[in-house]
Amino acid sequence: MAVLYHNPRCSKSRQAVELCKASSLDIDIHFYLTSPLDYDTLHSLLSRLEGDLTRAVRWTDKAFKEIDSPDVDRTSIDSVARFLSMHGHLMERPWFDNGNFTRIGRPVDCLVVLLQ
What we know:
This protein is of the alpha+beta class. It is 30% helix and 14% strand. It has a single domain (2-115), classed as Glutaredoxin (3-Layer(aba) Sandwich). The chain is built from four helices and four strands, in the order E-H-E-H-H-H-E-E. Strand 3 and strand 4 (102-104) form a beta hairpin.
């Protein structure tokens, strides 16, 4: 089963939920802020991530800048997974995972082909 990792505060994530609902696929909507992802899950998702690993984190978010000396290697799956397991609210959103690969839904249109 595919999973959409969703943050309801994000308009792009809400748009992705609507696309999932309109799809004929069986997609689980995971609210990662209320059910945080652990290191192993994040590592697995990141190891299947399409594209640049640096897109996984909201580096320019005000909350990121407020973290005291964020220790994260932007090029390391281990480091990014560890960081996001502690600071899940800084995960870029939404993420779509079909078990074979993970895709960040920005722009949301990049999810359309996956949901057909």
